[in-house]
Design a protein that fits this description.
The chain has 2 domains: about 40 residues; about 100 residues, no CATH class. Helix 1 runs antiparallel to helix 2 and helix 3 packs across helix 6. About 10% of the residues have low confidence. Helix content is about 75%, strand content about 5%. The protein has a two-stranded antiparallel ribbon with strand order 1-2.
């Protein structure tokens, strides 16, 4: 679901108010930074950072919800169905490196710092590109 311009209106207004208040506190030499934050570029940067952060936080939650848990694959879950289909397709076992084994590993141990950084960067970049394409 894409966020409409109307839904972002209050956030943009709050960002504008905050940067205006910051402009009164900071010295005049900081005026360029304040005006950049209030521009559409600043809004896109903020949106990209939020998108990347949400992706990093939501991956473990979503994996747990579909059944890839720290205690193993939950019975009768989507993860169990995926594991069953993978095992049937591979002669009874789930191969190392398969999608199911990777998702279970992440579900059990969480994302590594480097994976979090990569995921956050990719999603932030994608969010900025979508915001640009949508004219936000």
């Amino acid at each position: 679901m894409l966020v409409s311009k109307a839904a972002l209106g209050p956030a943009a207004s709050a960002l504008g108010s905050a940067t205006t208040a910051l402009g009164t506190i900071l010295p005049a030499s900081s005026a360029a930074a304040v005006s950049m934050a209030a521009s559409s570029v600043g809004g896109k940067i903020a949106l990209a950072v939020v998108g990347g952060g949400l992706a990093v936080v939501s991956v473990p939650v979503v994996l747990n919800a579909v059944g890839f848990t720290g205690a193993g694959i939950a019975a009768s879950s989507l993860a169990a169905k995926m594991m069953s289909a993978t095992a049937i397709a591979n002669g009874g076992g789930v191969p190392a490196g398969s999608l199911v084994s990777v998702l279970q590993s992440v579900g059990a141990t969480g994302l590594t710092a480097s994976t979090k950084a990569l995921l956050g960067t990719v999603v932030s970049t994608g969010t900025a590109l979508v915001a640009t394409a949508a004219g936000l």
